[in-house]
Each structure stands twice: as structure tokens, then as C-alpha cells.
Amino acid sequence: MMKRRVLSLVLSLSLAAGLVGCAGKAASDSASGKLSDQQILRLTIPYPIKTFDHAVVHNSSTLDILSNTGEGLMRLNQNHQPIPGMASRLTISPDQTVYTFTLRRAEWSDGKPVTAHDFEYAWKRILAPGTHSPSAYLFYPIVNAESYHQGEVKEDKVGIRALDDRTLEVRLKRQVRNFLSLAALTPFLPARKDTIQSQGKSYGKDPTRMVYIGPFTISRVTEDGTVILSKNRRYWDEKNVRLEHVYFFVSNHATRQLNWYNADKIDVTSVEREFAEAYKKSPEFHQLQTATTQYIRFNYKNPFFRNKKIRQAISYALNRGIIIDQLKNAAEPAGGLIPPSMKGYKSSFRQEAVMQAPEQDVDKARQLFNEGLAELGLTKPPFRLIMLNYEDNRKELALEIKKQLQENLGLTLMLNTTSRADKLQLENAGKFDLALSDWAATYPDPAAFLETFTSGHLMNTGKYSDAPFDETMKRAFNSVLIDQQIRYLIQAEKFLIQDDQALVPLYYVTDSYLVKSHVKELIRHPFGPRYTLKWVYILESEESDDK
After folding, report:
1. Topology agreement, domain 2-253+516-538 and domain 289-510
2. What gap in Å lies between CA 245 and CA 220, rounded to an integer?
3. Per DSSP, what are the bridge partners of residue 510?
4. How far is CA 320 from CA 67, 369, 382, in A?
5. Is the pLDDT assigned to residue 216 strictly greater than 70?
6. pLDDT per residue over 105-148, tens digit each?
7. pTM for this one?
8. What's the CA gap between 249 and 407, in Å, rounded?
């Protein structure tokens, strides 16, 4: 009992210190300049948002908004570490499988108190089979969460329980070293049962009818899709929120966004490859190595790609340097699936599991390709294989891949370029042969990447399945010691990439973006929610001073 109480005290103090650090830094920074009378931040989203129900959304733009209108038990600070959100106190059992959260006294935007029952309801709603949530797998470390999601047990068997209005108990199947980071993610937000049930199937369509507990509320969505946030006056930490409004304008055109930025119509914008060089010397230019890897996914329902030599041939046929040159944004050629930003046992996972990107070897590629064709009883490859692609700046990447595979292997690809949402639907329906894919980690753990290739995983759209790989991942998840878990994850990645060529890694993603100099404390995260807006404030710009 003493060990449990001491651990609780240490965690409570350290978490509180992290929170004070953020607030203090924002206050001291504002002293170096005059606050603007207009505390308004302007950003962009690529498409109008169809639903604001956090249980069913999967696109990053909607999650970015909801992570700032909601707040989970934890939130991420400027160092991307979890700090208290709605939780004021945390107790962890000695075996680190039982987390008991005490909620702070807080209100929803309509004045009703936030309770532990709101968290229990929301989490179990995501796991309910009828919700069809793309985020359900994130809860699988919780006792019986996966079994409930698959309809094997009843809801009351899940290890999520409100002990009273302000106490939530979460029971895990095993030790999960990053569970607090998980608890900071948008899918782990609470939700009000009365609001959802009263609105039925229309819930999430009109965000002005929803209730919020985060720093901001959604006050309006215009006819053109612009989403307007307003400061939440009932937010428990309202005194540390400076922004009055946040605008998310709709545009998926890089040139238009850059023109808006240069015309001072928006404050933040991504910088695509064709413009990156021109802005690299600007103090407003930033780059962030994200927890994202770009790769080629195979559809294993196609017998052609079930042949390992065919998959290996495609990897050796590609010149990753030329492919990355299409980006011009400091992307790094990928040898493995897990990016350098992921932590291993004592250092970066990539330092502990060195895996160099393969050099192009056209002769070896052709030899493997011909051997693969012979094993399949073919004299030539299938005609016009479908490759799914994004309609953003990666169109040029797909064209380069198509060109190289045509020249080096005689493969003819037909590109199907579409929006991210439509692409995911096509992948889930199996309507592809290859797909230019990416995976952005939702939490800082190498397993976040590797688990998506286990048999039956929701994100395993290519239907890859291998019993030895699944067993290695199972051993990793069941490992109590972190160093042992990392060793199993290293084995799993080696098998996936070097032994079986289950996918073709291309590059680790680096984001390039511009932020106006008068915007302070905008936190950009490499994983999970992209932006934390809580501590942002706006200084008077030099242009306004001149006037």
C-alpha cells in the first residue's frame, strides 16, 4: 500500500510541474512583446468536415479541431509529454496495470459537471461493435476491450469503470509504458450520453448543438466549410487561454494557402516541396521530423503480391533518392517501418535497430522479378495494376514510382489518385493492388506501427497475415520488461521488412511549415494531435506598429 501511495504522490507532483511549466513559459514570453487586441489565430483544413463525432472520425484535420475543443484525462505539453488535463490526481498499482484517475472539478460548456461516467460512456461507445469506430484498437490494452469490440463479451466486462462521479478506474491487460500518452489522444475524450442520445444519428453533424470541455467551443461553421472556434468561458483553466477565436479556412491547394499566408489572411501554412527551397532561410520557416513513414502497401488478396520475390524486386527496383527529390523537404530514405522519432529502450529505436534503406539494384530486381514470375507460372506480369495515391503533393511521387517500375521491371501501373478519405474507403474495400500509404503514430511507441500489420488489425487494409510475425508481436505485448519488449519489436520489424518484404518503406516524413512571427506558443506535435492551441497568443505585428 505504501508503494502505491508514494507512486501516486510522485506522479501527481511531476504532472502538476509539467502543467505549471507551460503556463509560466507563456506568461514570460508575452512580456517580451505587446499583446494584440485581436487574439485570433487563422489556420486551414483541406476539406469541409462531415462529422464532429470523435468516435467515428479518423482524418487528422477533424482530430486537430476536436483535440482543442475537448480535453482528455491527460494532454500533451510543449515537449510532447503527457500532463494533467481533466485528471487532477493519478494512482498506479505496483504492477502498473490499474490506473485510478481522480477528476478535477470542471464543467461542460453548458454548465453541467464533467464526471467519470462521461469518460466510461465515451470509451465504451467507441468499443461498441455498432459504432464501427476506426479508433477502437487504441483501447485494446484495456481488459476485455478487444473482446467487447468483437462481440465476445458484454460491456460490463470491460476494464473501464466509474467508481463515483470523480473517480475513473482503468484496468490494463499488461503494463503499457505509454498509456498516459494514449489518454491524451482525441479518441479518449469524454462524451455526454444525454446529448448523444437526444440527437441520435444526427449527432456530430451540427457542432453548435454539441457540448465541449476543452479550451474552445465550435461556435459556427460557415457555408463554405470554415470552422470557427471561440474561447470556452467555462473551461477549468480559462485564465491561461489567450486566444478568443480560431478560424479553420478550407483549402487543399498548396499555392492558394501560400498566397493567403503571404497576404496575411492566415497565420500558419504547410509548405509543399515546390516552395520549400524559397522559404528555408526565413525565420518563419520550420521543419519537424514527424512520427510518420511513407511506404508502398501490397494487397495480399492479389496472388501476384503474395510472392515474396515480386515484392523484393519492387523494393530493389526503386531509387529512393530520386523519389525523395520530388519532395525537397529534408525527408530521409527509410530502411524500416519505424521512424527515428520513435523511442527505443535507451535511445532512438532506429539507433537500436539499424536498418539502412536498400540501394537501387536493377539487375538484382530483374532477377528476383523473373524468378517470381516463374514461381507463379507467368511469363509476364499482370497488365495495369491499380495503385492508389493521394491527390496532394505526393502525386509526383506516384508518377516517379510508376516510371521506375515500368522502366526497370516492365510493370504497368494505373494510378487512382483520390482524397485521403476516399482512398481509405477503397483500401478497406480491397479495391487496389498497390497503395502509396503512410502511417502516423498516434502515440510514441514502435508498436503503434508494427501492430497495424498483425492479422485482423483494423488498419491492415492489405490483409497481410503471418503467424510467426503475429506471435512475435504477441510476445512483445505480453512482455513486462521494457527492454524485452523492445527486443521483440526489433525482431518483428526485421522479419516484416528484411525477411518477408511485407511492405516497401520509402521515406520518413518531415513536415515543412510557416508560422507568422507574431504567433507565439503554437505547439506542433510529431505524433497524436498535430497542434495544441491552448497556450497560443498573438503579439502586435510590426506591420500594425508601423500603422
Report:
1. no
2. 11
3. 289
4. 35, 19, 24
5. yes
6. 999 999 999 999 999 999 999 999 999 999 999 999 999 999 99
7. 0.86
8. 42
Q: How far apart are CA 272 and CA 260, in angstroms?
A: 14
Give the dihedral sign, CA 277/280/284/289. Answer: positive
What residue segments make up the domains of the chain, in order of their start?
2-253+516-538, 289-510
CB atoms within 10 A of CB 164: 11
Contact 269, 512 (CB under 8 A): no
Q: Which fold has domain 289-510?
A: Dipeptide-binding Protein; domain 3 (3.10.105)
Residues with Cβ within 8 Å of 497's Cβ and at least 6 positions away in sequence, in order, are 335, 336, 337, 355, 503, 505
User: Helices 308-317 and 362-375 sit at what angle, rounded to 10 degrees?
Assistant: 160
Q: Name the grid cell of 288.
A: 519537424
CATH architecture classification, 2-253+516-538: 3-Layer(aba) Sandwich (3.40)
d(CA 419, CA 375): 36
Pairing assessment for the beta strands 413-418 and 268-270 based on DSSP bridges: unpaired
| Residue of 510, 530, 512, 532 whose CA lies nearest to 522 | 532
Tens digit of each residue's pLDDT (9 = 90 or more) over 156-189: 999 999 999 999 999 999 888 889 999 999 999 9
- What is the C-alpha to C-alpha distance for residues 284 and 259, in angstroms, rounded to an integer? 15
